[in-house]
Amino acid sequence: MKGEFEFIESIRSMFPAPEGVEGIGDDCAIIPQQEGWETLVSTDMLVEGSHFLMDDITPYQLGWKAAASNFSDIAAMGGAPVGSFLALALPHDLPVGWEEEFLKGYRDISEEYGFPLLGGDTTSSKDRVCICVTVLGKTPSGRSVRRSGAKDGDLVCVTGFLGDSAAGLAAILHGYERDEDVKYLIDKHYLPHPRVREGQALAAWPGVHSMMDISDGIGSDLHHIMEESQVGARVDLSEIPLSKQLRSFCSRYGLDPYEFAAAGGEDYELLFTIDPEAEPDLELPHTVIGTITDGPELEWDGSEKDYMGFRHF
Amino acid sequence: MKGEFEFIESIRSMFPAPEGVEGIGDDCAIIPQQEGWETLVSTDMLVEGSHFLMDDITPYQLGWKAAASNFSDIAAMGGAPVGSFLALALPHDLPVGWEEEFLKGYRDISEEYGFPLLGGDTTSSKDRVCICVTVLGKTPSGRSVRRSGAKDGDLVCVTGFLGDSAAGLAAILHGYERDEDVKYLIDKHYLPHPRVREGQALAAWPGVHSMMDISDGIGSDLHHIMEESQVGARVDLSEIPLSKQLRSFCSRYGLDPYEFAAAGGEDYELLFTIDPEAEPDLELPHTVIGTITDGPELEWDGSEKDYMGFRHF
């Protein structure tokens, strides 16, 4: 493993700061402020053994995924990218080249989404990798989309397909044969694509009332919108968008696809509620899966089950 | 241990967001931007077993210290407080009340320095506490003090006394009797007071050329200023300010106080270089310990030893 300062220098050369911003190299990064804008900030921690297993995930995938879940938080409020900060605690006995592969994954997603790495911390850990990413975004003042704006009668919508990531995780944990469907699902689990551009488009569209990203499954995440907005919701299970790969995987192994789609985490799709009268004008691809009610319950049409999402404790 | 959402709610009620800022509760915090200002950001990770031992430090002290090292990074550039973000990975078998005491320490220093907690992440860890704090500050545009501004002929200055924290750590690790001197040194180690107000005062004073905080010992930290500024330095060991408690402790146990003062970490004092002609006008209490040279070496007057600071790897 490289020495601390050599390691920091190699990161610094991999991640040049954009014009006008001071990135890696001083006690703090320096980012200009701009009248009429707001800064968005979110932070997430990933610990080996709790959030990932070193035998399952490659360092490249881990670097990608650590950033993805954070970029998704900026997407969830409709933010544009500003930059990210990466804190890493690494054991001394990592395989040769592990850090470089991790940083490549982190760099590739950062470049794809336009989030420059502006700083961080590198330190040692006795025996487990620990990663903390803090991400900064921005929106014009008052234009970020909160969890708290849902109104009785709103349509509940999502982007993309749900459940692929959770099914990919199940396939990994149970050692299912890696056919084309399973490879697709595992890719969705390890290399998720957060909806940063879609979040910005939604925030610029006047019909959206509330939004968040789907990290713990809609069964859990929708409760956050309900609580913050003081509303209820009814979700029609049969309307939840499922990929053909998820359907085919579930039918082969006799599994309930809605268990993955409603209660499975880490899709990093957007969950949002919109004015029903404006819905025909929404050009962004989306699926209506239910409606906001005057609450307080979350009802599932088409199921006896109560699909709860993932809990961290 | 409380459930995740209950725990977040208890944190939310302990840390109300200031007027005009959205803190805990949504996907991101929202902080207004202001023309003519720059945002400063820094992040630090602390891992049980590498940075602290649970048997030695109380949860209150740990909460205080985790914030202190970050606030010190804002101080190091002359920033005013904006807020902090706290990511915590906690094992399930923590002693009853551990989190509450940790949060009290974190809250007390946050209130003392005026950094509101604006967000974070709480998650589980198999067996070790892991803490990542990200801190935001601000300075008027172009007024933050970098490591890169030191000039040949500058006076090298520090605030406060050096070495107390490292001597406190040594006293803990070697189990020295906790007399008044040792208690003072241990307090300096566990409950450090970063120089946020002093950093702001220095940044507003035109004679300061470069600045950083002392986290790894001046033997290591001064190298950062030298590298970023492309200069050398000469430090007069006998000018390094030592507390009477450190002197008395070292004389009792036959230890070299300069080993602690020059090579010991976590003082969280400020290290800065200033225009020698302006020095008489600097009202802030400080000690001149050396001069910047045209480099590239760090020379120690009054010693044969090469005092190197702490390295993280």
Largest sheet: spatial strand order of chain A: 7-9-6-10-8-11
Name the helix and strand elements of chain A from N-terminus to C-terminus, one letter apiece.
Answer: HEEHEHEEEHHHEHEHHEEE
Write down the Rg of chain A.
Answer: 20 Å
The number of strands of chain A is: 11
> Using CB atoms under 8 Å apart, which protein chain pair has the greatest interface?
A-B, 70 and 71 residues
Please give the largest β-sheet of chain A. 6 strands, mixed
Q: Which structural class fits the helix and strand makeup of chain A?
A: alpha+beta
**Into which percent range does the helicity of residues of chain A fall?**
25-40%
Assembly type of the shown chains?
homodimer
Notes on the protein architecture:
The first copy, chain A, is of the alpha+beta class. Chain A is built from 9 helices and 11 strands. Chain A has helices spanning 4-14, 59-76, 98-113, 164-174, 180-190, 196-203, 218-229, 244-253, 257-263; strands at residues 29-32, 37-47, 80-90, 117-124, 130-140, 155-158, 208-213, 232-236, 270-274, 287-293, 298-301. In chain A, the strands form 2 sheets. In chain A, strands 7-9-6-10-8-11 form a 6-stranded mixed beta sheet, with helices on both faces. In chain A, strands 2-5-3-4 form a 4-stranded mixed beta sheet. In chain A, helix 3 links the parallel strand 3 (80-90) and strand 4 (117-124). The longest helix of chain A is centred in the N-terminal third of the chain and has 18 residues, at 59-76. The mean pLDDT of chain A is 93. The interface between A and B is large, with 70 and 71 residues.
